[in-house]
Every structure is written in structure tokens, then in C-alpha cells.
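Transporter ExbD
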Amino acid sequence: MANAAKFGIKKRSGGINITPFVDVLLVVLVIFILTSNASIPGIQVDLPKASSSVALEKPKTKAITVDNAGQVFLDAYPVTLPELEERLRTEKALTPDFPVIVRGDASVQYAKVVEVLDLLRRIDLNQVGLVTGKAT
């Protein structure tokens, strides 16, 4: 009997081992968090195609969309250029270095997108990206 106590024969305690269950729940939680932040608010437009595109998807990203009629939207809300400038200046006062993406419909007039980009330059926003679709 002395040898049995010496080599560590232990009595098993009762209960359920929940460690594998917690591991699975943590993996499901991580997947849920990653997929819940995968979209940027905005309206659906027909994006022009590019050979490669870089994603700027961040939670605080502001999306400016120009549809095929030339209407400008800020996060799916229609705005005029003076309203857009006012809202972006307000956001810049709160968060100085937030990213902005510009989404323009493939059939939109180029001048309207340039007006939006010029407005972003006047406000002095540095993190600006143009969204394109993938070339087929």
C-alpha cells in the first residue's frame, strides 16, 4: 500500500470536464465577432472593376457613395456636398484620423467623384480609399 500512495494513484473526483466545451464556445465566439464586423454600411452600387482591391473595412470607417444618378450618400443616408462637409468635419473633431472609403457607381460622372475627393482633401482627411470590384 505504501507504493500505491508513493506513485500517485489518485481517486478520481466526480464531475464533468467542461474544458473542451469552453474551447468550442471560444472558437464560435471569435468566428461570430469576425463575421459581424465584415460589412460596411452603404447602399448597393455597381462598382467598377480593378485587377486587385484593398479592403479598408474597419468599424469606424465612413462610406461615401455616389450612385449612378450622381446622388451622394454618407453611410446610406443621402446628403448634399455642404452637409457631407459639415458631418465629416464634426466626425474629424471627434476622431481626427478616421478612414473614409469612396464608392462610385461605374456609370457615374467622373466629376462628381472628383468633387467628393476634393472635399475630402479640403477637410484634410488622409485615410481615403476607393472601392472597386474584382475584375472577372
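thats it. The radius of gyration is 26 Å. Strands lie at 49-50, 62-66, 72-74, 77-79, 100-104, 128-130, 133-134. bye
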